[in-house]
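re: that chain from earlier
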Amino acid sequence: MKFFDNTEVAFTLKSDSELERAYFLFKMIQNQPMVRIGTAVTNFALKAKLPVEGLIRSTVFDHFCGGVNEEDCLPVIDKMYTKGRVCSVLDYSVEGKEGEAIFDDTMEKILKIIKFGYEKEAIPYAVFKPSGFGRFGLYQKITEKKELSAAEITEWKRVKERFDKVCTVALEKNVPLLIDAEESWMQGAADDLLEMLMETYNKEKAIVFNTLQMYRHDRMDYLKGLHERAHQKGFHIGIKVVRGAYMEKERQRAEEHNYPSPICVDKEATDSNYDAAVHYMMEHKNMAIFAGTHNEESSMLVVELAKKHKIAPNDDRLWFGQLFGMSDHISFNLAKEGYNVAKYLPFGPVRDVMPYLIRRAEENTSVAGQTSRELNLIKTERKRRKLS
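^ sequence. v structure.
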């Protein structure tokens, strides 16, 4: 697509050596056996406490992550914003850790990020996962409508208090919250909680955003129902629309537990579902959309619908989002045309962020055409810079 073909704009932030590193990384990622071997070796080296963190940091970590903590990310944030007008969403990417002290610590990190966002125009949103504020199994039990014990009722109360605390500060500082979606068997509890928070905090504008994974075939019905309830109760809707990140896991669990898969039959059905959500949201007022996509056609659809519905490129209700280290041709070319764009910028200690990085590599090998598209764009830019 011509709109996204300008590699000089796409890679404006990358030095020659950074471009060469990206070329090397995506060449590696393209090789599925190499990804599997690399994953196994990395996991072994980290468990054996071998001194590999420096190597990881200088290669895959620095390409896909902003730094080890918030302050470490600031040079990347400032560079993207001043040179490319692309904003950042700081994403604390430590996965799978549980415990009340850990949940409280995550909440404090989000409060700090909201403060960052209040002070820096380049950080328009804060983001976190529901499981960052409470135990996955608790969300699952509530989703499955099982009776909670007295201790679990108290535990859930603490989860809601964490959400309320960050929502109150987000509203006060005018820094909206993107709450990520997770697996379907825990998402019902998160959906209900987030709707309740929207009703409380989204009276004037969208501060609380839920995330819809459009590979789930039930999400359009959910969106229409939410819109109806919001219209009746008078609150704004904030939605981040994505295709989804747990497809294989969802299908496998449905098969193991003998229930119908919640996932669309194929990629075409997912694409249609994604586009339907975008159409629906942009046709209705009192909705804010954060279009999370690495798909050029979907990005162009949002641009065309914005023009059709006379939504200005810099309207606060419309944002595009991509992951740091991927799809720069979409992010930077959209920003050049005046659209609101933010990169999800993961951060955290190298050792703790490895599960995230491994998932990124595995996703890139499984998404048809993603890696080869990245590689072709890098090759074009290397040629333009006379590096090859």
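The first helix runs from residue 7 to 10.
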